[in-house]
TrEMBL record:
Organism: Sinomonas humi
Domain of life according to the entry: Bacteria
Pfam families recorded: Usp
Domain UspA: 2-140
The protein's name in its UniProt record: Universal stress protein UspA
Length: 143
């Protein structure tokens, strides 16, 4: 494998398991790993009180999620270049667009919501698998 591995994360335990699977693969093939979190809008809120107020946006929260997981992964593995990114859009669409824009070789997603009613209604993994511009690995992330 010669290109970037992209893993989609949302802060959930299953996404963290998918990220660890992506890290193991990136280490094995000496590929860079991009940890990507999607956000749906440019909505922002002011939090805090008095003069201690902060502007919190969906983009900031997604970036912090990706950065947090990337930092956790960096502690587990030396030698893999890890990049964190936040991308606007629905999760599947954002991952697909990011993979295309970065010329990724592989997208890794977890298998969450691929059983039961989620399978009928659709899942991120299903959408990515059917529309990705590159190979897709669906990591087993359920217990």
């Amino acid at each position: 494998m010669h290109g970037i591995i992209v893993v989609g994360v949302d802060g959930s335990d299953t996404a963290r398991r998918a990220a660890r699977a992506a890290l193991r693969l990136a280490a094995a093939v000496e590929a860079p790993l991009h940890v990507v979190s999607a956000y749906g809008s440019d909505r922002a809120e002011i939090a805090g009180s008095g003069s201690d107020q902060f502007l919190i946006s969906d983009a900031d929260l997604a970036a912090k999620t990706a950065q947090s997981i990337a930092a956790d992964l960096a502690h587990d593995q030396d030698g893999v270049r890890i990049v964190a990114a936040a991308v606007r859009g629905r999760p599947a669409e954002a991952l697909i667009r990011y993979a295309a824009d970065s010329s990724a070789s592989l997208i890794v997603v977890g298998n969450r919501r691929m059983q039961g009613i989620g399978r009928v209604l659709g899942s991120v993994a299903n959408s990515v698998a059917h529309n990705a511009p590159c190979d897709v690995l669906i990591a087993k992330t359920d217990e």
